[in-house]
Amino acid sequence: MTAIRRQSAASNVSLERRAWNIRRKALLMGEVQGQGYIGQALGVADVLAAAFFHVLEYRAEDPEWEGRDRFLLSIGHYAIALYAALMEAGILPEDELETYGMDDSRMPMSGMASYTPGMEITGGSLGHGLGIAVGMALGLKRKNNPAFVFNLMSDGELGEGSTWEAVMSGVQYKLDNLVCLVDFNDQQADGKTTAALARGREEDKWAAFGWHTQRVDGNDLKAVVAAFEAACKSDHPGPRVIIFDTTMCKGIKFLEEREITHFVRVEADEWAKALTVLEEEKPQ
Ligand SMILES: Cc1ncc(C[n+]2csc(CCOP(=O)(O)OP(=O)(O)O)c2C)c(N)n1
Ligand SMILES: [Mg+2]
Questions:
Q1: What is the Å distance from ligand 1's center to 113 Cα?
Q2: Domains in the chain, ordered, with CATH?
Q3: Which residue from 135, 177, 241, 276 puts its CA 20 to 30 A from 4's CA?
Q4: pLDDT at 284
């Protein structure tokens, strides 16, 4: 098993700085439109930094390279977060940042595979990403392609029955090249995820189905990296899941302390304020 990467070793930019850069780019895009799923982007930035700069194998200049690890965004509404990561990774040019969400932009507000280099699937109809990831992982195995498939999904998607069909299929086909990443921000469209359905401990469910299961603080970069390493290097004969507990709006205190909802409102004058707050926390 090797999905822990190689190409970022040449970079001397810290993962903390990568995560900060991703947060900054997402805020800049939000400012362009005066809106965006910024709470989600700020929350998941550490996971994306670890994925794109410590784990995934890809060629920025050739996003469709056959040997790349596939990173699927099941949650189309998180597109702003992935665009920021793709820009930081050099897959999308930074000068397109100002086109975010505009007509003819390659960065529509919801992720569209046919529009954007590095956007592997058109997500957004929630509960479908993991099923697609299962199919991709199976296909790669059958072609003897050693690439991994990473599927980023949300806690809201854990309430979709199709997710659990895919969970069973992943085990059935012994997909040890599939890593599911769950952004557990305890928020979905109509309130707290943990209040929405009878839930129990999420990690126990995945483990009971036969997945290699971890649950970590998704805003603790060291823990995130360790979890990716454990998932990719394990010799468990089936799929892996990492449940990341994240804080919406992470990194911008005045937003973190605001009443958190699925769509965190940021007033017109607050984008600049948020960027100033972020600037004060700039890591090396
Ligand atoms: C099948 C489907 N049902 C409903 C929606 C509408 N919807 C868009 S985002 C969302 C919230 C889902 O929960 P989660 O992704 O955890 O929300 P967040 O953490 O972003 O608040 C919903 C219900 C959808 N996109 N797809
Ligand atoms: Mg959520």
A1: 19
A2: 15-280 (3.40.50.970)
A3: 135
A4: 82
User: How far is residue 142 from each of residues 132, 147, 171, 212, 234, measured CA to CA in Å?
Assistant: 15, 12, 16, 22, 21
Q: What does each C-alpha distance from 274 to 22, 250, 281 come to in angstroms?
A: 14, 11, 11
Q: Is the confidence at residue 182, as pLDDT, over 60?
A: yes
- Do residues 256 and 192 make contact, with C-beta atoms less than 8 angstroms apart? no
Q: What are phi and psi of 77, to 5 degrees?
A: -70, -15
- Distance of alpha carbon 163 from alpha carbon 74, whole angstroms: 11
Q: What three-state secondary structure class fits 245?
A: strand
Per residue in 84-111, pLDDT tens? 999 999 999 999 999 999 999 999 999 9
CA 258 to ligand 2 center in whole angstroms: 16
**124 CB near ligand 1 (under 6 Å):** yes
Is the C-beta atom of 75 inside 6 A of ligand 1? yes
CA 129 – CA 171 distance, rounded (Å) = 16
Measured from the Cα of 76, ligand 1's closest atom is: 25
How far is 71 from 78, CA to CA, in rounded Å? 13
Average pLDDT over the chain reads: 95
Q: Quick one: tokens of 162?
A: 């199709």
Q: Which residues contact 35 (CB under 8 A, 6 or more apart)?
A: 266
CA of residue 173 to ligand 1 center, whole Å? 28
CB of 189 shorter than 6 A to ligand 1: yes
Which ligand lies nearest to the CA atom of residue 156 in the structure?
1
pTM for the complete prediction?
A: 0.97
Atom number in ligand 1 closest to CA 78: 20
Evaluate: CB of 246 within 6 angstroms of ligand 1: no
